[in-house]
Design a protein that fits this description.
The structure holds 2 protein chains of 2 kinds. Chain A is mainly beta. Chain A contains 2 helices and 9 strands; from the N terminus they run αββββαβββββ. In chain A, strands 1, 2, 3, 4, 5, 6, 7, 8 and 9 form a 9-stranded antiparallel beta sheet that branches. In chain A, a hairpin with a 2-residue loop joins strand 5 and strand 6. The longest helix of chain A is centred in the middle third of the chain and has 6 residues. Chain A is globular. The N and C termini of chain A lie far apart (43 Å). Chain B has one domain. Chain B is mainly β. In chain B, strands 1-3-4-5-6-9-10-13 form an 8-stranded antiparallel β-barrel. Chain B has a two-stranded antiparallel ribbon with strand order 7-8. Chain B is elongated, with a radius of gyration of 19 Å. Classes of the chains: A mainly beta, B mainly beta. The interface between A and B is medium-sized, with 15 and 21 residues.
Chain lengths: 126, 203
């Protein structure tokens, strides 16, 4: 009784983004550019910890390729603690995830960055 | 409230404020998660023209009547010498030529002892909020408005910190001297009412 209005957890966007995702492309204002090497692989866990595989030169050199960050889903936005105040608008399908962020450019205009991911098998990242 | 808002005017006690070109181009990008980012060019000339233009804070609505925005502000904390009541300043020696040394004010060292940065919320009264217009009112001290990111400060009220580590904040309110100490102090004791008007933009 009184639970008919509750969302089915499977349809909850926060549930849909949980999983391990491999980045397939990055675009800025619809132009394809090099993939974002700070998160070529991203594991969003249901304990609200996100693990990012950071392949940037500085991370590889410092041997800090595994990054952990708290995450939340509020107001329809995917908030990754290490990215705040920037947040991502997620569009999750069973096997694909698209994340989009908006930033101010130096001239005051806005730029739209889109990261696309495909789901890969879950794995334990240590 | 969520969306992109361009600041179109600011008034002080009912009188429109004259905004510099750097203040004119101020925009708020308000996200539904309680964070917001804003853009202005007050510090753009710093770092050889590559100064910061994007800033951020948090926001929330209260009873639909008020909106709280957190912003950076600076506390006015210069000290006066006990014997002469003059503003304490740090000095440094500059060698102009062998045997020719002069002592000058160390602006960067002094100014960092005169202002203390903090991040705090300001509560605005919502005068108008529609799909296209937003008008909000804040009653505060002149100094609280001037030496804060509410939302775009006047470039002349801030200076560049040139010797900070990369990634650190490289702007701070201007040097306090004997010439402007009492003026600024009075600004922090004078209450005025500010009305900010914004127009919604699509993106």
């Amino acid at each position: 009784m009184g639970t008919s209005c509750q969302k089915d957890p499977v349809d909850d966007p926060a549930t849909k983004i949980i999983g391990t995702w491999h980045q397939t492309s990055q675009t800025i204002d619809e132009l394809t550019i090099t993939k974002d090497s700070s998160r070529l692989l991203m594991q969003i866990n249901d304990d609200h910890i996100c693990i990012l595989c950071d392949s940037t030169n500085s991370a590889v050199k410092a041997k800090t390729i595994i990054k952990r960050s708290d995450w939340s889903y509020t107001g329809g936005l995917f908030n990754l603690a290490i990215d705040l105040p920037v947040s991502w608008t997620p569009v999750a399908e069973p096997n694909t995830l698209t994340l989009q962020r908006i930033d101010f450019k130096q001239d005051g205009g806005l730029s739209k960055t889109t990261l696309r991911f495909e789901r890969v098998a879950n794995m334990e990242i240590k | 409230m969520v969306g992109l808002w361009k600041q179109v005017s600011v008034s002080e006690d009912g009188t429109p404020m004259v905004l510099t070109p750097e203040q004119e181009n101020c925009r708020l990008l308000i996200d539904a998660n309680g964070a917001y980012r804003y853009y202005h060019q007050a510090f753009k000339s710093f770092k050889n023209g590559n100064g910061p233009t994007s800033f951020y804070g948090s926001w929330n609505l209260l009873d639909g009547k008020w909106v709280n925005f957190t912003t950076d502000k600076w506390q006015f904390i210069p000290t006066l010498s006990t014997d002469s009541n003059k503003v304490n300043l740090d000095h440094k020696k500059i060698i102009r030529a062998p045997g020719d040394t002069i002592t000058v004010i160390d602006t960067l060292k002094s100014v960092q002892k005169q202002w203390s940065k903090y991040h705090i919320q300001s509560r605005f009264t919502i005068l108008q909020l529609s799909g296209t217009e937003m008008e909000i009112r804040l009653k505060t001290f002149v100094g609280e408005k001037k030496y804060a990111l509410l939302f775009a400060p006047a470039p002349s009220d801030f200076i560049e910190l040139k010797t900070v580590t990369p990634g650190s904040v490289n702007y701070i309110p201007k040097l306090v001297t004997d010439q402007n100490y009492w003026t600024i102090r009075k600004e922090f004791q004078t209450l005025k009412t500010y009305v900010f008007k914004f127009r919604k933009e699509t993106y």
